[in-house]
Amino acid sequence: MSTRFNQAKEAYGKQGIDVEAALSKLKQTPISIHCWQGDDVTGFENMGVSLSGGIQATGNYPGKARTPEELMSDFDLAIKLIPGKKRISLHASYAITDGEKVDRDKLLPKHFEKWVEFAKARDIGIDFNPTFFSHPLADDGLTLSHPDDNIREFWVNHGIACRRIAAYFAKELGTHCLNNVWIPDGYKDVPADRLGPRLRLKDSLDKIFAEKLDGVIDAVESKVFGIGVESYTVGSSDFYISYAASRPGVYNLLDNGHYHPTEYVSDKIPSLLAFFDKVPLHVTRPVRWDSDHVVLFEDEVKEIAKEIVRNDALDKVLIGLDFFDASINRIAAWVVGTRSMQKALLWALLMPHSKLKELQDTANFTELMVLNEELKTYPFGDIWNEYCTRCGVPSGEEWFDEVKQYESTVLSSR
Ligand code: RNT
Ligand code: ZN
User: Fold this and answer.
1) Torsion of CA 199, 201, 206, 212, to 10 degrees
2) Would residue 8 count as lying in a domain?
3) Residue 386 beta carbon below 6 angstroms from any ligand 1 atom
4) What is the CATH number of the domain that holds 224?
5) Does residue 55 line the site of ligand 1, with CB under 6 A?
6) Residue 38 domain boundaries
7) Which of 32, 42, 55 to mutate to test the pocket of ligand 1 (most atoms within 8 A of CB)?
8) How many CB atoms within 10 Å of residue 246?
9) Ligand nearest to the CA of 91
């Protein structure tokens, strides 16, 4: 143990903070790392369609993963450099069908066997996402709210197939599987009917969620707009919160890139915690829009972490990541984003929350501000470094040497 760690521990100790307890909580808190940062949301279907649904990965950094083997190998390097407990979040478009063309409505657990092997060998859980975009039947930007019954049925069947795959993951891995539904549906211009598409979506979701499945945690993810879908989004926040509130076992996932810029997910977490026993998250970094930049250790992420920690909700809030930057080394993106989320959690775990709450409740707002500001210059880095060392991962920027090495030996030959 470094002297710096001991001194830091003492400094936090004076605020009544049990640093050892904080470290062990952090170590137990899983972060669900999204597979799609590894290949710019491409997947393995080779359908010749590009990324659709109003989301965009920009940049052309060399070395992107093109096969399951490459993606798994890249992910392996990333998790080697990330401390603590990890999960992987897959999209249906990452099915491994060994050359067989299997359409989305026909996907089966066997198309994810290799992922289960991968997860078992690393002792990590899997979360899942049906893929309602980048497909010929989603070309017009409509899926579960489609006015054409046949197309809508195709997507309902995809949703049903995915929940069964999620149940398979849960059973095989002995941990829950969060199955998150995000659809791109909406209109570029002023719609002539706003209610109709929402009623169709409601009906589609009811069909998808009808089957009772063990181990599956169902979620719906809203959004305010997408590229080419600026005027109207079928799955809005109001719609999904109402949907989840009226459907036991369905939860409202909060993606912090999916709201108006002056709204904060950190403020939404406690609102949902007042009504739901689970709050799934997609943590991302929106820059001027839902740009899905890599998560950094910055104010709103710290604020999100504070809401999780001080409300004793580390097991209620399911933390997942959702960003995809194709302009930088994709493995480094994974590592920076995940470590930043973990730093934010540690930051929150090292705060004297009861004391701060008491200052609020007794209207001591001056002292509250003073203490909050002083805490910002406490020796947080020394605790983080010790945590990384104990977890057997590099503590500082030296982790990037391994990524550079891998880039020159592996990525550069792709
Ligand atoms: C899109 C949503 C959604 C996707 C992933 C790929 O705006 O955030 O979660 O990013 O499913
Ligand atoms: Zn998301």
Assistant:
1) -170
2) no
3) no
4) 3.20.20.150
5) yes
6) 18-349+379-413
7) 55
8) 9
9) 1
